[in-house]
Amino acid sequence: MKEKITFGLQVLVGILLLVFGFNMFFNFLPMQPGTEQIGAFMGALFQTGYLLPLVGVIYIVVGVSYIANKFVAFTSLLLIPVMLNAFLAHLFLDMAGILPSAFILFVIGLVMCKHRSKYESVFTN
To answer: pTM, whole model, 2 decimals?
Structure first.
């Protein structure tokens, strides 16, 4: 039962990541007005020219991986720094948008705990 709930959350996050990833390229979800600080932060990310498309690709790859339940342990490692940055940006710059990033970060933690045996070699001498 616990396994099914974890997989259901994994698929839900996969769908969210696909939606957010494709939104980076096609802008079909309107951006909510945020604080001036988050606007400046997002503007700086946009001006790099590569960072937001890279985040979009990571979201799409991980979303497909989570839904297909393939390479989940690896793709979780790709996603954790991106989502941690999103969570911290919302925590310090715009609390209004923190809920989705907090939820996704929580589910990544659950998924990584589910696959913890695959990470054991990283924590051994």
So the answer is: 0.92
